[in-house]
């Protein structure tokens, strides 16, 4: 892989993580402003938008990136530019169409989410307003995403990374400032504040689009220098072009919609099921915790583990193409083990420290802390689903990845309502775990069948990582118990910060030291961090 591509991948990964960290941090002041009811209303609007956005983009940005990279590599720049022009037109049309449909269907979708005209302080009219305000973003975001894909196809990752960060900064700034002004300065309603908070998606997209336009102006001379084809142009008809694009995009768009689709099921069944179960008074509050606030706490370790695992997928694809199945098995092993190594201790840490963690981000809420203890273990399922789906695509079994997701969604849809009626928020978490668990088991079976993969080493390493994690958990638990003699997390956020920093610091140090002394760290990450291998050789 070229240095340019490696550098670009690093820049893109860094930009993605900065965006995700910002997306986690902003939720603290947002919760302080709008609380549980505002969070529920926000999520009702945003869940509809996320699904419509996935449908509107149809995986085109990723497909265009691959298409442009393919035809540029053979010197057919005319076909790349033709695809870009056609793609922009398609994204504009699908974006406008998605906006119109979502805007018009807002009353139906709002009533479907709430189940009746009013739940607590939230009415159908409130939800309609929020859905319609966020729907405007559908006009801009698909176009922005496609331009990012075009730049990435030229192995230029900087525009995507910078535009992602600027988009997030502009969105969060508008969201928080508008909510603060509406509620604290103009003494407006919670509904108006949340409406502007969702409208921030449109404002942020404008910011991201302006960044991409600035990059285009700076680099258009370099792009225009590619006008002269090195080979005869394909002169590809639009129908054939779209056929090739959809062959790239189909599986990616469906699998990429996994978490939004799970969230969408909750958005349309959670509150109604809580009411049916006799929990009307707490329905919107528990909904906002489970569907909006808890995922923010677990997505950073999930994203980190998944990113490390996914970096191996291109090499898995290469090895599979070369029919080197021994190497394929080794790379799959490494991807799975890295997920367990990074995610399992984070889960255990969150379970043990759920009360101060929830206090730091939100407030001292026994319900929130309890639900976090249940939700944290689901994090490892998110990671495994993403990587197993990518591995299936890497071994050219894209359709099986789609079947895997479909199986999980059917299970989630079937058991969600009865489990929520019986166990409230915990029921929704259990339904999600059952759905993702079934998808992962199916994917495991297919990977074993089509790649000849053996789970023997993975099982042994998982047991060993489990022992190290138990040791870490003991350190964290003892540290928290000792600190509780002097500091009470419920006294405030600063006390929670002190407890978390000391407990996490000591737990992480104990875990990494044990992993290093046992040479597990070198075996899993030595290829990424050369100094680990040097230490290992020196010890030998």
TrEMBL record:
Gene Ontology, cellular component aspect: plasma membrane
What is the superkingdom listed in this entry's lineage?
Answer: Bacteria
- Location(s) in or outside the cell: Cell membrane
UniProt protein name: Cell division protein
Signal peptide (from-to): none
Q: Could you tell me the membrane topology recorded for this protein?
A: Multi-pass membrane protein
* TM ranges: 12-34, 46-65, 86-109, 129-147, 168-186, 198-216, 245-265, 285-313, 334-354, 374-393, 400-420, 426-444, 464-487, 493-514
UniProt keyword annotations, A-Z? Cell cycle, Cell division, Cell membrane, Membrane, Transmembrane, Transmembrane helix
The family database entries (PANTHER family) matched by this protein are listed as: LIPID II FLIPPASE MURJ, PST FAMILY PREDICTED COLANIC ACID TRANSPORTER
User: What does the record list as GO biological process?
Assistant: cell division
